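Protocol check, entry for the methods section draft. Step 1: assemble the input record (protein sequence plus ligand SMILES). Step 2: submit for complex structure prediction. Step 3: store the structure tokens unaltered in the notebook. Ligand used here: adenosine-5'-triphosphate. Step 1 record:
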Amino acid sequence: MDERLAIRARGITKCFGDVVALDGIDLDVVQGQIHGLVGPNGAGKTTLLGLLLGLAVADDGQLDVLGAPIGRALAAPEGVAGFVDGPGLYPSLTARQNLAALASLRGLDARASGIDDVLGQVGLTDVADDRARGFSLGMRQRLGLAAALLTKPRLLVLDEPSNGLDPAGKKHVHGVLARLAAEGTGVVLSSHRMDDVEALCSEVTILATGRIAFSGPLNKLAAENSELDYRLLTSDPQAARRLAADTSGIRVVDDAVGRHDTEALVVRALVPALDELVVRLVHADIALRELSPVVSPLEAAFLALTEQQENSR
Ligand SMILES: Nc1ncnc2c1ncn2[C@@H]1O[C@H](COP(=O)(O)OP(=O)(O)OP(=O)(O)O)[C@@H](O)[C@H]1O
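Step 3, stored output:
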């Protein structure tokens, strides 16, 4: 077995009655990698994360976590921490007391366990003595992450960790995850926020109806991607539109995000044709003020792959 693998899954299947939540999943996640799990509602993300956390057992297949096969016991495997469906907290206890309770449940010495340190890492020092009952969703998520950090995991499993986070909270959480990964911890997280996945993850798995539509490096996904829509702002929108319509490999389309802004030009193209258009604009003395994909390459690939898979069913 490859010792760098935090997760090795082969042929994992999980059903709930007639519903096949996971249908023969193969997945490798190496230590020190932040791996994003994305997919439409009901794709099987939470089910997969639950198996990693020992909250449920697969019906079929082989799942190795941190080098050891997962047995049939419903318990978090040694070295694994995280949460699905929001962290479990005691509402009547303060943030600090929640962590102390967890430390004592885990047999850790509360004073030596680094409670202040993990509260600081997630940015909750100022509310450490406030009751969790009054915490917002984002604060609860951050406290859940602090609880996971307390156990010094070698694999961190998080379901939608960005839910409810404000920009400051997001900065803390992203910083913590990046630091953990740099220290060698494997991180698997699900998200519906493609921008978060793109900012954090080096590899991504796209699930659709319990099957893997893509798994691998983000840049491979972008390279495999077909045409994307790009939005261009130029000094002469009318002339730019005419030139685009006259450029091979470029299709002028309506603004897919409905920004109905007459100044913008939206084109569908592969990168080489887009390059050609930019060169032609410059030669025609039309200044290019802004050029950006209408949706990110991950989002576009995600939509294309999941539609493809759903159509083939
Ligand atoms: N405990 C359960 N009992 C019955 N069906 C379940 C159970 N848990 C999940 N399912 C079903 O399994 C499928 C996968 O659900 P899962 O929650 O893993 O999807 P998800 O990708 O996490 O979705 P979302 O993005 O909405 O959170 C769905 O069809 C869901 O209805």
